[in-house]
Amino acid sequence: MNSTTSLSSAGILQGRRVLVTGASRGLGFEFANRIVQAGGSVVLADILEAEVRQAAARLNEQGFAAHALVFDQGDPESVTRCAEQAAALLGGLDGLVNNAAMTHSGGKTLEQLEIDVWDQVMRINVRGNWLMSRACLGALRASGNGSIVNLASDTPMWGAPNLLAYVASKGAIMSMTRSMARELGGDNITVNAVAPGLTLVEATEYVPQERHDLYENQRAIKRAQHPDDVSGAVTFLLSGLSRFVTGQVLAVNGGFVMH
Question: Three-state SS string across 2-21, please?
């Protein structure tokens, strides 16, 4: 994170306690990093045990309040246990960032896509986000001003080809966000989604260069997208600055899709 972005969000999450899933690297780690830089405390949760513990240790070494939990978003019991442990470690929860997801369908047409891959993507990306949100509801209600931020994608907005399971799962996240916002508004819990464009992280290393070129050439801001381009939007949606914003999907992609 550069000094400009760090200063711009300093203090806006003071005292906020946030669980970030899929936080061992990439966007998830950047979100956790921005949260603590903005004054919050965080639990980083991931299925990658060594990586998530190292990620939390990196933040601890800088003097920030960060904890690591290992969980499997495909396992309902593991999800529930993670939510309970996160609330216990932080003394409650004010925010949840549903970032954990998988792709595994990239480069295949709808005819080539295997049924078991489709089912796995839906289990992790859609069911897993619902289960984690449900598991955190008690703590978020107790907060009195809880926030859920779901990670969608801009791919459903433009119909990205050869990525059908992932695109369908992220389209479901957008719809779930709106429905959850309607249900939880009475509890003073905001629910929003951030829809990044193609971002330079480990999870997109498989993406062919022509897809990167497509994004860069068609963006209003013609450059590659980095994790810290997305974290400001997530921080805003977790903060008191967005308490009257709910049920929204915010595209963060340099103007590739204007939603």
Answer: CHHHHHHCCCCCCCCEEEEE
